[in-house]
Amino acid sequence: MSKVLELFLGVLTAMGGFVEIGELTFTTNGGVHFGYSLLWVMLFGTLGIIVFGEMAGRVAAVARQPVFNLIRERAGFNAGLVTLLAANAVTLLTCAAEIGGVALVLQLLVELPYRALVVVGLVALVVVMWLLPFRWIERVFGLGGLMLAVVLPVAWRADIDWSALARGLVPAAPTEGDGSGLLYAYYVVALLSSVLLPYEVYFYAGGAIEDRWTAKDIMLNRVVVIVGFALGGLLGVALMSIGATWFAPRHMDAQLPGTAALAAAATFGKAGLLLMIGGMLFAFAGAAIETALSGAYNVAHFFGWPWGKFRAPAEAPRFTLAWLVITVAAALIVLTGVDPIAVVEYSIVFSVVILPLTYFPLVLVAADRRVMGEHASGRLANVLGVAYLVVVTVAALAAVPLLIATHGGRA
User: Fold this and answer.
1) 112 by DSSP, 3-state: which?
2) Which element (helix H / strand E) includes 399?
3) Is the distance from CB of 288 to CB of 98 less than 8 angstroms?
4) Disulfide-capable partner of 155 in 206, 212, 238, 341 (CB 3.0 to 4.6 Å)?
5) What's phi and psi for 59, nearest 5 deg?
6) At what angle are helices 134-144 and 2-16 packed, to 10 degrees?
7) Tens digits of residue pLDDT in 230-272
């Protein structure tokens, strides 16, 4: 019975934690600019995060090794340190964007200055991370984020062009939209990055060890990543459909959380608005916590420090200090007045740059029978892992030039 409950909660938390401010922004605005033409990227990216998430969970369960242990072992100290610095810089930016998103959502509920709400959000996040054990953090924010499932009936009630939606699931050159080919390519890279954000794998692998998974939990791991991430991908499809059918005809970009909530409010009134606001609040706050903990996991794993939420703060002082520093530094970034949406864009683009460095050692170790024994990757997992490595490497090389050429997606 406990395994059934863990499975149920695991699927729900994977689904509820899938959409954060970066994916909300790029997915909805992808629909605004290009209709359904980018749905194939959502499909492709969701399969990719399932592939890499399954590998990360399996390696953590069998070898008891998180991602940055693997990076240091396979890439060496110097290359691993470069990857660590790059990964945590991107994680810091992502955490800043999520804290800024929390403040923007809180502004929809209370009439306080933005900077004051950033401080309120910071204090609340630190208290939650200090007091709650890992499993409750995972469940409270994952399940709270499920309120975003309101986008599914909103999309269903919209005037969906089902034939165009079906065509959008197949890769093709854009046949609709108001942007250039470069802008389309920029959105392809940004959407792929928003689904494959590396902190998700860092957090998932660390969480599997926090939950004391063993080889007996491999099937649980597969079900959680396949069902949970697939359902999360469905939320992304719904958001893109809403962008195409609700925001595009009104010539609106859904950049700000308040704007993104308008479709739910128009469809279901106050109840729809409150569900959308509540879902965004839990999703953005949960992502802020995940990124802060992921950055702390990365540093502790790389240098071999005691770590984990299963330890009291005094038992893992450097790990605790690491997530505190990341959270406070992220809040200080948004307190400067920088636009959190601009931070989102840069964090998403630079995330894709480090994807090959993150996933290459993971694919190697997952396939290594000396480490994984009978649980090493099979032929299908190896083929998919290598294929996605090639794709994310190409995307990594194209990301910064596209960011410059499109002026951050505004070309």
Assistant:
1) coil
2) helix 379-405
3) yes
4) 238
5) -65, -40
6) 60
7) 888 899 999 999 999 999 988 888 777 888 899 999 999 999 9
Q: Can you tell me which residue has the tokens 């950033």?
A: 118
Phi, psi of 40 (to 5 degrees): -60, -30
Name the CATH superfamily for 2-405: Amino acid/polyamine transporter I (1.20.1740.10)
Among 251, 214, 200, 226, smallest CA distance to 359 is for 200
Q: What angle do CA 48, 257, 229 make, to 5 degrees?
A: 20
CB 55 within 8 A of CB 196: no
The C-alpha atoms of residue 176 and residue 165 are separated, in whole angstroms, by 12
Contacts of 137 (CB under 8 A, 6+ apart): 128, 129, 286, 289, 309
Q: What is the pLDDT of residues 318-369, one digit of tens each?
A: 999 999 999 999 999 999 988 887 888 888 888 888 888 888 888 888 998 9
Q: 303: closest CA among 85, 60, 64, 58? A: 85
